[in-house]
Amino acid sequence: MTSLRLILGDQLSASISSLEGTSAEDFILMCEVMEEATYVKHHPKKIAFLFSAMRHFADQLKNSGYNLRYVRLDDLQNTGSFEGEVRRALKNSEAKEFIVTEPGEYRLLKTFEAWKTSLGISVDIRPDCRFLCSTDEFKAWAEGRRQLRMEYFYREMRKKYGILIENNGEPVGGQWNYDKKNRKPPPHGMSSLKRISHAKDFITKEVLALVKNRFANHFGNLEPFHFAINREQALIELDHFIRNILPHFGDYQDCMVSGEPYLYHSLISSYLNAGLLLPLEVCQKAEKAYLKNQAPLNAVEGFIRQILGWREYVRGIYWLHMPKYGAMNYFNATKPLPEFYWTADTKMACVAEAVRHTRDHAYSHHIQRLMVTGNFALLAGLDVKQVQEWYLAVYSDAYEWVEMPNTLGMALFGDGGIMGSKPYAASGKYIHKMSNFCNRCGYDPDQTTGGNACPFNALYWDFMARNQDKLKNNHRLPYVYATWDKFGTQKQQAIKKQVDEIFTKMKNKIL
Ligand code: FAD
Ligand code: DLZ
Ligand code: SF4
Predict the structure, then answer these.
(1) Which residue among 432, 433, 434, 448 has the greatest number of ligand 3 atoms within 8 angstroms of its CB, and so is best to mutate?
(2) Overall number of domains in the chain
(3) pTM of the complete model
């Protein structure tokens, strides 16, 4: 039976399940569509990366003999949507079956499922086997558990894939997790190692011109553009990371430094999420570096945990709880997203720095996403939908399956504790300890009230106080409430007044 097979922009892997069993008369469809490029206003670097990677992958498939139909954004007949393009491709075709690998976003899964009744041919939605834990497997693991803690899930995954596991089934080194050795504050003068920059070929130059022309009103700088746009280049970046940077990954994983967006992070999330790299090969390469004494165990274990543990876990959470997950808002957070998330125009040096990294690179490392922009949004009670939309738009690695649990669950505790045992709320003291941002800030991280007190401090206490009914029974927070009580009425009122002033400044765009 002749089939039409759609490959999405984040399904750029030769092993994708939608290609399995393709025969000579089948044809493959890939399309650049406005609907996908604008359902949130994606960062221009993300659009350029995906379009260039899609065009390179299409060429690779053509060269391998696939019968490929590629629709460019500026093709005159482009209807602008997947549905329009699939229907157009089906016209005058013999196809009796539509095949697609399950998408990474719930809204698209619903679209494809609806086609089972509306498309007029058979529709086959196949599992995405690039992930290391299927959605059914995660569901089975979650069944009957009161709490879905990542750490226990991760141990199961280590055993399943035999990664950093001794012959007797015990973890290499005797421990499952070496985070105690990580999380060091940044040493004075810390800077990162040189990163790889890829030369732009004709395809990428064409895409850059297209994106510059069509998406000029999206937040973010398109150039300089240095992303890998095919598997070969992504592998070069991965190997460079493993050889030169991975040895330092663990120690300084949580550091933040002015003018240093990357530090010792791998920068591979966009490549993994689009399918240029596969999670198992990345974990195995890192494990090999440990076995060959090229990187210490705390670094390698910490890195592997992010991919084999966190990445699979957040996907499991997303599919387990959608669509209810998307509607959660545990703290009823509804304050509008302040303009400085788009302009970096704030006196808070930490927030300005994180937004600048985001604008310039479509990237900001995990701790900046979590403990700066995410933490501010949590403490200030910013609207969870607006915050999620921001994260989905501004990062080149963002797709809802990974963005939503990280933003709503991890950063905003909007799921009420499905992902975390307590909110990642922190005062300016944490940021001061883990970064050098406060040295260049107009605010003082040691002050909670007063004209130049760090806004994170009063906001932290106010967050705890105003959500006391929801958090007071949390077994990890009694000391926080004991301290709050010890403050006494006068100090508590001063903090409340400080917070009112912070919100007024935020409204007047002078925070
Ligand atoms: P490294 O620090 O080098 O980590 C290695 C790899 O581990 C990453 O490439 C990534 O694939 C994986 N990883 C690490 N942490 C996580 C995590 N929490 N969840 C899933 N995978 C993880 N990651 C995305 O891929 N897309 C997103 O849209 C996204 N949104 C986020 C939003 C918020 C609020 C937060 C706090 C985190 C978010 N993350 C997201 C997770 C994490 O911040 C990024 O994966 C990481 O910063 C990517 O940079 P890197 O490749 O240099 O990662
Ligand atoms: C993110 C994105 C963008 C910007 N554009 C396209 C596109 O034009 N064509 C396409 O196939 N995919 C695109 N994508 C990726 C999809 O949004 C992604 O496949 C879904 O969100 C599912 O994860
Ligand atoms: Fe951020 Fe406060 Fe430090 Fe300024 S003083 S950089 S606002 S944590």
Answers:
(1) 432
(2) 3
(3) 0.97
